[in-house]
């Protein structure tokens, strides 16, 4: 059973999300919070498997809440799924930097929200497809996510690791990458485990951002070509 904490200041949205996730056979909503301080207190007490966090909860900004829940110094670290509107602001970019497991549009279909929670609970990153191109394009033009340069990473990554990174950046899961390369899923996981430290990142999602930002893979154009 996936234990979920919801932090959302808008009461109808909070109730709706709780109803959607609570209705899933493999999920339990263990708490709902209406602001940042309450979310932090409940998260520390309940230690959920996933915290669904509104990016702009009152009381504390969403970035500081995410940092305390899933940042490098968090203990325990609680995976965070950010729920946001379509605008791309510093909260989203900062959230990626502190290590959120993913973010999703608030108006996503209920099945997509539930699927995202499952992916986060399983330790996978997830990002809304409608946001992917805008996020990656923006990151490609902005400040560095971390100090590892593309040239240095290319010199340290094996050919197979670079190939996996490129497939990962296309949105493929471990299973899809394994099928594409005709290898075992465990082999893909082993390559990923060795690759992330070389890039100076802590998650699959940060690895994807790094790949686009450093132009290891091309940023798709608006037509998806």
Name the CATH superfamily assignment of the largest domain: Response regulator
Q: Give the biggest beta sheet.
A: 6 strands, parallel
Strand order of the largest sheet: 2-1-3-4-5-6
SSE order in H/E notation? EHEHEHEHEHEHHHHHH
Proportion of residues in β-strands: 5-15%
The N- and C-terminal alpha carbons lie at a distance of: 40 Å
- Provide the residue-averaged pLDDT: 82
Count of discrete structural domains: 2
Number of strands: 6
Helical content class? 40-55%
What is the highest CATH level, the class of the largest domain? Alpha Beta
Regions with pLDDT < 50 over 5+ consecutive residues? none
- Any idea what the shape is? globular
Structural class determined from secondary elements:
alpha/beta
Number of helices: 11
If classified by CATH, what would the architecture of the largest domain be?
3-Layer(aba) Sandwich
| CATH domain fold name of the largest domain | Rossmann fold
Radius of gyration: 17 Å
Can you tag this structure with a few keywords?
alpha/beta; Arc Repressor Mutant, subunit A; 6-stranded parallel beta sheet; globular; 225 residues; Rossmann fold
Task: Describe the protein.
The protein has 2 domains: 2-127, Rossmann fold, CATH 3.40.50.2300; 145-213, Winged helix-like DNA-binding domain superfamily/Winged helix DNA-binding domain (Arc Repressor Mutant, subunit A, Orthogonal Bundle), CATH 1.10.10. The chain has 225 residues and is α/β, with parallel strands linked by helices. Helix 2 runs parallel beside helix 3 (62-70). It has a 6-stranded parallel beta sheet, with helices on both faces. The radius of gyration is 17 Å and the shape is globular. The protein contains 11 helices and 6 strands. One of its GO terms (biological process) is regulation of DNA-templated transcription. Pfam families: GerE, Response_reg. GO terms for molecular function: DNA binding.
